[in-house]
UniProtKB/TrEMBL annotation:
PANTHER family: PROTEIN TRANSLOCASE SUBUNIT SECE (PTHR33910:SF1). It is a single-pass membrane protein. The keyword Transcription regulation does not apply. Component of the Sec protein translocase complex. Heterotrimer consisting of SecY, SecE and SecG subunits. The heterotrimers can form oligomers, although 1 heterotrimer is thought to be able to translocate proteins. Interacts with the ribosome. Interacts with SecDF, and other proteins may be involved. Interacts with SecA. Belongs to the SecE/SEC61-gamma family. InterPro entries: SecE_bac, SecE_sf, Translocase_SecE/Sec61-g. The keyword GTP-binding does not apply. The chain crosses the membrane at residues 75-95. GO terms for cellular component: plasma membrane. This is Protein translocase subunit SecE. Essential subunit of the Sec protein translocation channel SecYEG. Clamps together the 2 halves of SecY. May contact the channel plug during translocation. Keywords: Cell membrane, Membrane, Protein transport, Translocation, Transmembrane, Transmembrane helix, Transport. It is found in: Cell membrane; Membrane.
Length: 111
């Protein structure tokens, strides 16, 4: 069963020079007796500032695994976006003109 939690705003505090802590408040989870325990709703994620170089190294390693599009694929995608945008612009211009004509006709008949 999937459960949905509405997250409270993240709170970031520096407790010491080498520790960054972010706290997230979640709704209290029901305990074994079915009642809610408020202490269960607080989770803290801590990362030592010394681990930042390792984190950056991991990000670079994951970025290296990304299959980047070729320049041809990028150009073809951009061209398709431009063509579809133009087609939708023309379509909505036509629909708008049609509704304008209908409203104008109805207002002329109402006189």
């Amino acid at each position: 069963m999937l459960e949905t939690f509405r997250l409270a705003p993240l709170t970031t505090r520096f407790y010491s020079a080498d520790l960054l802590t972010t706290s997230v408040t979640l709704p209290p989870a029901p305990g074994p007796d079915g009642g809610a325990h408020p202490e269960d709703g607080r989770y803290t994620v801590a990362m030592k500032l010394g681990d930042i170089p390792q984190f950056v190294q991991q990000v670079r390693a994951e970025t290296a695994k990304v299959v980047w599009p070729t320049s041809r694929e990028t150009m073809m995608t951009a061209l398709m976006v431009i063509i579809m945008t133009a087609m939708l612009g023309i379509f909505f211009f036509g629909i708008d003109s049609l509704f304008k004509a209908i409203v104008h006709t109805l207002l002329t008949l109402a006189r």
